[in-house]
Amino acid sequence: MRLFLLTSLTMVAFAANSVLNRAALVTGDMTALQFSAIRAMSGAIILLVLILWQSGNLARLRAASITGGAMLALYLVGFSIAYTHMDSGVGALILFGGVQITMFGGALIARENIPPQRWVGAALAFAGLVVLVWPSDYSGSWVHAEIFMGLAALGWGIYSLLGRGAKDPLAATAGNFVYACLPVGVALMMLDGLRIPELTIALFYAVLSGAITSGLGYALWYQLLPQLRTSIAAIAQLSVPLIAAAGGVIFLSEATDNRFWIAAFLVLGGIALSLFPSRKRLSNS
């Protein structure tokens, strides 16, 4: 139960990033690239402070993986650039669909036993995601959608797979943010013309997203990943767009319709089916 609750909390943190992003951009006081840059730098700073507070030095950052930092950077840059040229719904579909494929591929390479009902549950949950975010008339840039968001999905999928081997989750996450996100944050600011955002509510949303729902949220994710089956970790993330949509309804007064409830039924039903013990496990118990 504790693992389920903490995993659910992590998915809420991931979804909160989308809600905070939308809330910041709606104000008109910040661009998407500025938000991503501040988010990256805020996450690095809060994690560095935590490491220093716990250990008194930064020696623990050696637990970080260069590959992990590179994959986190790939996710952040691909995500930021893609969303400047495409709708959020299609972006979420490509992102989480790509993450699903990457992590299931990793599970197969590691020879993880994936029961048939988990495949069915994953397909059902993904179908719900399609219902939730697929637009009726998409006119965005398919080049950006397929390349940049696809790269973001690959980066996050591999980053999550690497987290299963993290011996010191907090230090690994802090190192990944420092090695990848600080340089990436500066690069994104340069792409945006080095414009410094004003002290507004949008800046607060960006810092909150970086420090709490990204920095601490990603550290918690690395803490949980060794305890989760790779396929379960992949399926769980399909709930993020649904939670983000619900957050938009609650906090941003965004409209909802019957499609949302159909999607909710499919996504949650698929996840529940994936988590339910298989007949083989029940017969052996």
TrEMBL record:
Predominant cellular place of this UniProt entry's protein: membrane
Keywords: Membrane, Signal, Transmembrane, Transmembrane helix
Record-linked InterPro entries: AA-Vitamin_Transporters (IPR050638), EamA_dom (IPR000620), EmrE-like (IPR037185)
Compartments where found: Membrane
Keyword Transmembrane helix in annotation: yes
Record-level GO cellular component terms: membrane
Signal sequence range: 1-15
Transmembrane segments: 32-53, 65-83, 89-110, 119-136, 142-162, 169-190, 202-221, 233-253, 259-276
Its membrane topology: Multi-pass membrane protein
Residue ranges of every copy of the EamA domain listed in the record: 147-275
Pfam families, per the entry: EamA
Full protein name: DMT family transporter
